[in-house]
Amino acid sequence: MTVTRGLEGVVATTSSISSIIDDTLTYVGYNIDDLAVNASFEEVIYLLWHRKLPTLSELEELNQQLAENADLPKEVLDHFSMYPIEKVHPMAALRTAVSLLGLYDEEADKMDPEANYRKAIRLQAKIPTIVTAFARIRKGLAPVSPRKDLSFAANFLYMLSGEEPKEIAVEAFNKALVLHADHELNASTFTARVCVATLSDIYSGITAAIGALKGPLHGGANEAVMKMLSEIGSIENTESYIREKLANKEKIMGFGHRVYQNGDPRAKHLRLMSEKLTKLTGEPQWYKMSTRIEEIVTGEKNLPPNVDFYSASVYHSLGIDHDLFTPIFAVSRTSGWLAHILEQYENNRLIRPRADYIGPGMQRYIPIVQRG
Ligand code: COA
Question: Under CATH, to which class is 221-317 assigned?
Fold first, then answer.
């Protein structure tokens, strides 16, 4: 048996959703650079799910479906009060709440394509409401109901703060959602596909994916980047802090990637946004520290930043709590997870690899009273 650690380079499926070829990321053949500048997140959801860009009426229909399904069942809203709330990370809350949501969907176990599409709409619509409601309830604030007249990005920011967001914030947030929407067979998407390939339901697939995204080597890296920037605290401290970490062979969060050789194409869009927003908020130090870290890590290790590195200072500049960064990644990536789940169901085969056993050879059972 040949073991490929971490399944590096292993091609586990065909897919028509997104591709990474020569360090270029495309969604259904559209370059991410093009979509980041021009597309709304809602258009991207449609693109990933239907593998074509929507017409105006198709987009309006999707917008309406998302708006009509954004409210949460009362039971899901109420259950947060049972948590030891100060200790619960919002990703754990999201994972639990999505699983719970499945209990209140009468179609949860209906597996025909139409029912699965309806559930995809419900999940995409409700996950932002879960994240924002939890974010407010843990601060003793009442959740803010979703509005039907706002875009997906604007509605999220509105539900989080209770105030209608500024245009620049909506533009930045929409761009971040577009950039995080899908990414070929990343760890959480693979998790979702493995789960539903047993013909388990969509709620199980998304719950499993959220669990995989939570880890610091995947989606959890954006929160870890902001923690690092806060610990460094100033431009003067940056060089010694990073060099010490590198000397201790510690990983610098937000750098490196399994697939990209010459850099993550999403990072440059977030870098530009970080520069713009940190200037506007009067906190340019976050951007300056980030570019200094980039210089050092790229120079020393030849590792370019990934999507998580500059998204940290972008979200911070939008006034978002640091532990909500990864749930925001989940809000966006839900669109990709759902696209992959629907694609997996279309042409399913159980995903079941092998392990090369390296434990002890054949042993004989000894009754417990005779064991030394
Ligand atoms: N900082 C410092 N060194 C890093 C590094 C980082 N962020 N990422 C990788 N390396 C080094 C490793 O230490 C290792 O060096 P070695 O060969 O001397 O031991 C080498 O690069 C390969 O790293 P490895 O962890 O095996 O690569 P991978 O393909 O398994 O991992 C990541 C990819 C993304 C998990 C990895 O780069 C990482 O942990 N990055 C930080 C977390 C992060 O930003 N995750 C978000 C990804 S979008």
Answer: mainly alpha
